[in-house]
Amino acid sequence: MPGIGHRHTSGFAILEIRSLPGDSVGKLLDEHGALPLSWAAFIGAQACAVLAAAHHAGLIHRDVKPENLMLGPDGSIKVIDFGVATSTGDEFSRITHTGQVPGTARYMAPELLHGADASRASDLYAVGCLLYELLAGSRPFESRHVLDEIARAQSEPPPPLHGVPSALASLVDELLAKNPESRPADALAVYARLRPWIRGVRPIPGWTSHDLSTDPSHLYTIALAHLA
User: What is the pLDDT of residue 22?
Assistant: First the structure.
């Protein structure tokens, strides 16, 4: 799967990241603010494709956020920093043992702050935060103070997304549901719902090349066919 490298040594699986061209989606948001709808779907769909492969392999990322997505000159997205990932179904197979809740609080699903284990659903909540930020130019519960932001995420619905088609806004709302069981079934389902919105993706000056005719998300479509 594009975006994830791995090898095995001495009985351990090791994730590898090559030196990647481009820069983070976090920096892109800092420079441009809200992105066109087609770009939000383009980035979100590629991220979901990588998560679908990771989840299929039993890995939960636990730190999905714009800073951990690398945008290449061809428009391709690489998901980086699996350093706090955990594997599912085995308490002793966690990659990190810090004694703290791993991840970034502003993108963390509400249940994690109540002691629940990281899950595919908590990764999808972070995807909801990502999509909201791509579409609105700000996080759903944005505040200068992280504790304020966490409290709002626990108790308030996200502000409505203005100028976003209702079907796409509904997907973001589902991803940001407080109850993990109310979120979409899996990353593959989210990918499928984002694909129709990827139309007319134009280059971003200074970020992507003038030739985006080779749609990177088609590579993911082919790869994900093996997971369905």
Answer: 78
